[in-house]
Design a protein that fits this description.
The protein has 108 residues and is an alpha+beta fold. It has helices at residues 10-22, 53-63, and strands spanning 2-9, 27-33, 40-48, 67-70, 89-92, 96-101. It is built from two helices and six strands; from the N terminus they run E-H-E-E-H-E-E-E. A four-stranded antiparallel β-sheet has the order 2-3-1-6. It starts with a strand and ends in a 7-residue tail after the last strand. It binds ligand 2BA.
Amino acid sequence: MKLIIAIVNNDDSAVVSSALTSENFIVTKLSTTGGFLMVGNTTFLIGAEDNDIPRVKEIIKKYSQTRTASTPSTSSFGKGLSNNSLPSEVKVGGATVFVLDVNSMEKY
Ligand code: 2BA
């Protein structure tokens, strides 16, 4: 069994969630914030059997769009941290996906 951790744009999270649950994958959604842009995104936790991992990835990829976002002002980065060298725009996503081995999973 694997645990997929997938960070998805908030604008895509509803459709990703619906597509996964409609194929009977079990999903937990966490409200998260990107450390760079400091805007909300959605992190999915999906426990799935090894042979289902390609399908889960395929669904996430299909519904996660790439976007361009403006970088935040210096004030958002905190005192003393300059953003002079930072780009004014960055490409965000589609999704960032980690796949971890699961030692065990139990439900009580
Ligand atoms: P953020 O940290 O808000 O990053 C948003 C986008 O800004 C990133 O898009 C990337 O294009 C750019 N970016 C991030 N850090 C940067 C830096 N130090 N210098 C210049 N540009 C930078 P994505 O790579 O598509 O990431 C989207 C979101 O996925 C991230 O939001 C973060 O919440 C998460 N993420 C991405 N890679 C991760 C990783 N290795 N570990 C944990 N979370 C990650």
